Fold each of these.
Amino acid sequence: MKKIAFTETVLRDAGQSLIATRLPYEKFEPILETLDRAGYYSLECWGGATFDTCLRYLHEDPWERLRNIRKRVKNTKLQMLLRGQNLLGYKHYPDDVVRTFVAKSIENGIDVIRIFDALNDLRNLEVSVKETIKRKGIAQVAISYTTSPVHTLENYVALIKQIESMGASTLCIKDMAGVMSPKECYDLVKAIKANSKLPLHVHTHSTTGLAFMTYLKAVEAGADVIDTAISSFSGGTSQPATETLAYALTQLGCETGLKTDVLKEINDHFRPIRDEYIQSGLMDALVMGTETDALNYQIPGGMLSNLVSQLKAQNALDRFQAVLEETPKVREDLGYPPLVTPMSQMVGVQAVANVLSGERYRNVSKEVRAYLRGEYGAAPGPVNPEVLKKVLGDETPITKRFAGTLGDGLEAGRKDAGALAHSTEDVLSYIVFPQVAERFFAWREDQKTRRLPYTIVKI
Ligand code: CO
């Protein structure tokens, strides 16, 4: 019987997609032991936006959250999402910071680190992959999925071979926008499986409504693990439902290892929580529906709504069509970066600027300038030389690994973090989110004397 394993995303991606990661630890603590009994391959529970949100909004030390989860989840692997050299932030951090962050993640309880880079520039992953393996973690390297003339099956397979030779433990196809079709997925999984023996995970979102079909084709083509969310936190911008896929795949002759009665217990816990977030308005009906515009425009749903709000803010909603036409042109000029954070924002802002200023690339953000300088890594395809000339003038872009130019950062971070940082974990929080961590440390110090209930005070 064919085995297909599941990663449950309710504690990370589902919450990030549906309720902006506002799930405090105390809301899911009572269900952790049950999650551990369900038979998942792993629980995705940390990294991504959870780290920032813990410190910024939930008054939680993310490291303490991780240790608390680990205490209650003894058998199932704990998984996190890491943006390679960007860690959980938005810029490139020095190598010693990246190594320490990875080491501390594993020391505090993480088993699987899913590592990716927005540009699929593997130089941005090599330090975190190496360190994960050194610390005996599972280094899962994810490719950011997109379609473009340079993102061919041949190029993806070549990328996978390089990833394999980096020493990755497992592979993942990461479709953060939910635009991968069943056919594209089938072809890609087949091609990867024909060229690599490593276990392959597939990650997608229900945004466009393709996900259930995409996963069925992924399994048919030989994928080993799929990412799903317990039903009350599934659908829309989240993952498709765990129970539904387990049901369908079991009938199709797969062995999922999941226990149906335990899944029901888990969903019974999360359903009233979901209802609470709908009531409070934190969960918007818009994120729950199916949004097919992304398929027509080849622009992820989240980016489309960003474009609309940018144009609204500048009172220029009538230029929406022009911006929709400009966006793929900007993407082409920049060498077809996948439209994921931070590239989706950079391309979107540039397309709006190009349309509204009446002259392409007259106004260029400092992020796009840095991208063209090579500070984010190598573009997937050739960059338009005219754009390069217009933006950078005579300056030559760097071709070596940007983080290699940074020197060490941990000790300087330790000094800057000051006396309220009590551990290396605190120092890492500070390096990645300085102002937010500083406010959190001060709040935490205050708690010791004021003894306020943990989540009452809003920063
Ligand atoms: Co995702």
Note: The domain at 291-403 is CATH 1.10.472.90 (Cyclin A; domain 1).
Amino acid sequence: MAPVKTLLIINGPNLAMLGKREPEIYGRETYDDLQTFCRSEAQKRGYLTEIFQSNSEGEIVTRLNRAMDGKYCGIIINPAAYTHYSYAIYDALLMLSVPKIEVHLSNIYKRESFRSNSVTAQACDRQVYGRGLEGYADAMDLIIHILEQRAREEAHR
Ligand code: DQA
């Protein structure tokens, strides 16, 4: 069977407002720009993407639960404000064994103090922040790196 080569990209609340939303923090690129960027960066690396945005915690949890069917080789998630308090998203991430990378467009460590705490990152392999849209490409490289590392470990067993 051919290996799964699809990445699931999840974006949380208010991220559909990119471009209009505090551009001095999040940049002038729109959510459409973000999706185009992700598709093209994934394609360069030989991956397909499914991109999902929701303002609702429950919808994000349901989307992650559906990812249990093994359709994806990795997950990139920007849980937005849910990052800082959603144990439901944390739990949903925890049960997935594919590489999971948390992304933030802004540098959450140089803003209000509540943003420095990420509940959801504790269920992810790595976190990327403060790189704008490029952070999503960085997350793809990290997923590829983790997958290669796991394949090497598997080969040595
Ligand atoms: C964000 C950072 C969060 O603190 C914030 O609530 C967001 C966006 C980011 O991408 O920088 O909505 O996740």
Note: The chain has one domain: 6-155.
Amino acid sequence: MNLTMINFTAHGDSRGQLVAIEQLRDIPFEIKRIYYIYDTLPDVRRGFHAHKKLKQVLVCTSGKCKILLDDGREKKTVMLDKPTEGLLVTGCIWREMYDFSPGAVLMVLASEYYDEADYIRDYDTFLKCAEENATGE
Ligand code: T46
């Protein structure tokens, strides 16, 4: 599984840091939705699903958290701990988010409006979708 990390430029000066994120420039899709996850307890695990069509970039703007990515053949874990770094997640990838540090904020830039029909929440159904993706069916 190839992971794509996107690095954002920090415009720092004596006052602090600023990161600007622009669709189709910094993000390889039009951004239709932004949501963020916060106030998450340290022992909480979220996600447990894949998406059919959705593309997303995950940025931990404050604190840190881990993202488990599973393409049905391989699992990889990514630590997000920089507000200047985004993780691109496209295709049929199972994801779990965990080990949120106190005060962590996970911001997600998404290519589509919220649509429950785009979620694959059953792991066996995900495995079929992942296999179809891998074989180009
Ligand atoms: C994903 C990971 C990284 C909405 O009403 N609108 C939204 O745009 C979203 C994302 C969620 N919701 C509602 C649906 C649930 O009642 O918020 C509640 C929590 O959502 P969910 O349980 O899906 O949250 P996570 O953290 O398991 O997953 C989320 C995204 O849903 C998902 O697309 O990739 O973050």
Note: The pocket of dTDP-4-keto-6-deoxyglucose is lined by residues 33, 35, 37, 46-47, 56, 95, 97, 108, 114 (CB under 6 Å).
Amino acid sequence: MAALTRRRFGLLAAAGVANLAAPSLVGAQGVPRVVVVGGGAGGATAARYIAMDAGDAIDVTLIEANAIYTTCFFSNLYLGGFRSLASITHGYDTLAADYGINIVNARAEAIDREAKAVRLADGGRVAYDRLVVAPGIDLVYDSVPGYSREAAEIMPHAWEAGPQTRLLKDRFDALEDGQQIVIVPPPNPYRCPPAPYERASVFAHVLKAKGHMASRIIILDPKPKFSKQALFSEGWEKYYPGMVEWYGPDVHGGIKGVDPAAGTVETDFDTFHGALVNVIPAQRAGLIAQDAGLADESGYCPIDPASMRSRMDEAIFVLGDAAIAGDMPKSAFAANSQAKVAAMTVCGDLTRSEVFPASYANTCWSLIETDDSVKVGAQYEPTAEKIASTSHFISQTHESAKVRKANFEESLGWYVGIIADIFGA
Ligand code: FAD
């Protein structure tokens, strides 16, 4: 399809004419079709790289439920007053205009694997030769007894960014000195392992800046240990002495449930009251991946470590949080890295372009206090069983202020770079 035509089709699809895409194995111009479900860190990157690498040789359609995407990454910086919500919110215009990607702003309802077509909520069908599934996570609300989608309006999770993040910030900003915050982190595996503890740090930063020294942040963790624990513990002691209290299951004995009306979290040991309770439930692959039979009993989707190809269906690739990515954590960095491997393999499948050996990377930065960020990261390669870590690094305790400031500045640069890499702008 010529660039101009592709661009025009993108605008048409964005205007809601998804039914144009009737099921057939190749597009109207006879080129193979790639459909991507989910326009987040993984899916939008994959769509962009396939469109960039294949040019007019592949017709790329991106199906995304929302018209705009607010990044979970850096959403803690918004909670801490370091960033605006607008600065972490992005659109799909450049992917349509500059890369000729057909943007279909609709919820994908189901995947018909036999017919190789995606059914949209409005009944439209979009046919594919290769499908990339990157729907992120599905929150398992009832993993915490008493918690539900409705309860999340009172005890926000803010683990899917957007309205939930704004709600959590509004509730947090309204707290008075002496009021208590309770955070209930999720069990493994979940998106962004250090993020609940970065969230506690930015909350403490704001409370300290406001002079709310009588306030407390209680973390009731279902896990006996957590990511970057020594670094967070050192930072909390240094900057916020006595303000952040973390309890693992050996102390609280287990989370028995929450009572949203009373604002309480019940554990075996005691019942904790929070003026603000941030419950982050267990997670699994986005619903559409489960419904399509792409997940196993773990709730996540097995993939071939060398290509991100689904182990359940060779015409489908699963990326990002929804995938079982071996040693890689669930992060935007990881999803973006996996998307490039999948894009290369998809292009190889459909245009016979060269496919190079896969390698992956990840780094996660966490802000503890102004200009004090720590990081953890690794390089990965596929083995027969999994994506395996080949080398890794982590910040050390007692590092200089200069090193920590450099980490923070590096994270700012990373954000600019990854947003350009995902959305093309
Ligand atoms: P997502 O980015 O969630 O994208 C999935 C998309 O699919 C969404 O836009 C959704 O609307 C769409 N979708 C789902 N189902 C459908 C459907 N049926 N039809 C159409 N569209 C659908 N990662 C980092 O690398 N660095 C960080 O500093 C970092 N900080 C974080 C802080 C917090 C508080 C949180 C919660 C996460 C953080 N992460 C971070 C993790 C990161 O946000 C996720 O790992 C990443 O977004 C995963 O990308 P994804 O493409 O798999 O899913």
Note: Residues 1-26 have pLDDT under 50 and may be disordered.
